[in-house]
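Go through this pair.

…
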Amino acid sequence: MIGHSETTAKPMPTHLLSYAGYAMRVPVWCGQLLTGAKSFGDNPIIGSRRFNEWGLHVARLKVAHRLAAKRRVRLAALVTAEDRTAFDRDGFIVKRDFLPAVQFQALVAQVKDYRGHAREMVQGDTITRRIALDPLALEQMPMVGALVRLPRWSGLIRYVNSSAAQPLYYIQSILTHVGGSVPDPQTYLHADTFQPTVKARLFLTDVAPDAAPLTYVRGSHRLSRRRLAWERRMSLDARRASDFLTRRGSFRIRVEELGSLGLPPPHAFAVRANTLVVADTFGFHARGPSTRPAHRVEIWAYGRRSPFLPWAGLDFWNIGSLGHWRVPLFWRIADMFERLGIKRNVWRRCSPRSAFAPETPSADR
C-alpha cells in the first residue's frame, strides 16, 4: 500500500530493563527496613556501606532492642524475679530437672516410639534432623503436647523472646561426624540476627562436653557501646563478606575478639537430660566442638517476630492450633519454590523415622 511502511518494534535495551526492575524493587527494600529483614547481600539498602556509615544498621539495632526491653516489662509476670535476674546477667535461663522424673521419662518414651515425617539439613559433617510438632504429632505424643502447653515453658520462651507470639516447635536431632570434610558453619560463634530472638532446648539426652554442646557467651545479648561499635564496623563490609552467613546478617565473631568487647569466653552447656536452656540468640552462641560421633535429641522451640512492633501479643498464629501447622506449611511452600526453580529447599524430605534413629543413608537425603 502506498504510504505504508512496515516497521518492526525494537526491544527495550537490556540496561533499561535492568534499571526498571531495580526501580520496582526499591519500595520493597525500603519496606523491609521496618521488618526483621537482615540480609546485607539480598537488600542493597540494608547492605549499603554509605547508609551504614550514616548509622542505618546501628539505628535499627537500637530501636529493636529498646522496643524489646519495653515488651519484656509487660511480660515480666510470666517468669520469676530470679529468672529475670539470670537472664539480664547472662542472656539465658537454665532449668535443670525441668520436668518431674516420671513425666520426663514418659515424654522420652513417646518421642522414641514416634515415627514422624522428618526433614534433614546437612551442614559440613553434621546433620540436623527436625520433626514438626504439628497437631497430629502432638496427638500421638500427649506428653509433648502437655509440655508445650505448660505455662512455665511458654512463659520463659515468651519473656526471652519479648513476645507472646507462638514459636515454632520441633523435635530436633543433631548428628555429628557423619561424613564430609567441610566444617560445620554452626561451630563458629555468631549472632542469629540484629534483634532479640529466642531458641529453647529441652535436652532429651545427656550432652557431654566433647559432643557438640551448645555454647553461649554470657552477657553478649546486651547492646553495649563496644558491641554497637563492633556491629557498625561489621555492617560496613557485610555485603561483600567472604562468609555467606555474615552476608545474610548472621555476624560471625572469633573467640579472640570477645575480650575487646569486654566479653568472657564461651560457656558450654554440658548438661544432663531434662535440662531446659532458653537463650536470646542475639547473644553470641555456637555448636561446640565434637571430638567423636555424637547424637543428641531435644524438644526445640524458636521464635522471631518483627522487632518493630510495640505490642507483645496480637499474634495471628495463636488462634487455636493454627500455629502448630506453621512448620509443615512453610516446608510445603519451600518445596513449591524449589519445583518452580526459584530456590532450593535446604530441608530435605526423608522417610518416617524416630528422632533417635541413626544417620540417614545418603540415598535417602
Notes: The longest helix spans residues 56-75. The chain has one domain: 19-305+321-356.
